[in-house]
Write the structure tokens for this entry.
Amino acid sequence: MSHDVTAAFPAFPTPTPLCGPLRQPRQMLAEQTYDGHKSIHDDATAGDLGLRAGPIEGPTHFSQFDPLLFQLFGQRWFESGCISSHYQNMVVEGEEVRAFVQPPAAGESVARIWAEKSDGTPVLSGTASVGDVPDEAHEIPQRIARLRPATGLVINRDLKVGQRGAQPEQVSMDFEQHMGDYYPFTLADKLRVITELSPWYTPEGGPASPWGRAIVPIEMISVLLGSSGDRAGLKGRGPAVGLFAGQQIRLINGPVLVGQAYDLEREIIALSESKRTESVWVRTQVFEAGTRTLVAEMILNGATLKASYAKYEEEARALGLAT
């Protein structure tokens, strides 16, 4: 794609709601490993769990919203934007997805967002905004507020709300930096296949951005923060297979910059359960390294599939829980 490097994206037509083109997001996590095993993004592992193929990671779809939200909010989207999403149905490579944004009504500040496959199957739904909007106006905090107390946890029974990450984490993302076993690719790899490429993400166009440097795409903020998550120790028993069930990324003093070091602090803010999963909701705060300047926050609903934990039935019985 080629266009003026002083603009984030080429303009799309502006119907209401705003909608982007159909895109085919790419699978980048087929080789992802943790706890000594492949992840749900591996076709064989997904098949063992009853899925037809390894799904594409949820935040991959955030890139399709960036041109629409930039069109709506301008460069503030990368400075103080918030995208908050509940993931509804998995997408596999080869399927087409379209993003939609319903701009805020007069007197309101929060946009509704959703994505659909080409056949209308919902992929995600949520909210987006810029600036000083109360957190509770967004999809993920609203879902947390509606959670029932978790009384039957097995996999996550050792975790507590308020529990903080075990050790400090410092992270950064350069173009050719391999992000580890959990994210076995580089930013350069992603930019070659990202659904919406902005020159502001690139080595060539970054210096022409409003911040004079290349910025990390919002979907890759999830990669940056997830790359060191094993250091925090905020995970349940395993080995077991998990997935992202919902996610909020909020920029406060953004954007997140390529090559910049950041300090991370994590805290469990909720625990929940469903028929098939147990969830840990973790807030990760992103500070400019060596300071208390809060740059961004992420809330992630990391759900673990009960059926993937070999000892689930045995331990549930031992705990006196019906299964």
In short: The longest helix spans residues 62-73. The longest strand covers residues 262-273. DSSP finds seven helices and twelve strands in the chain.
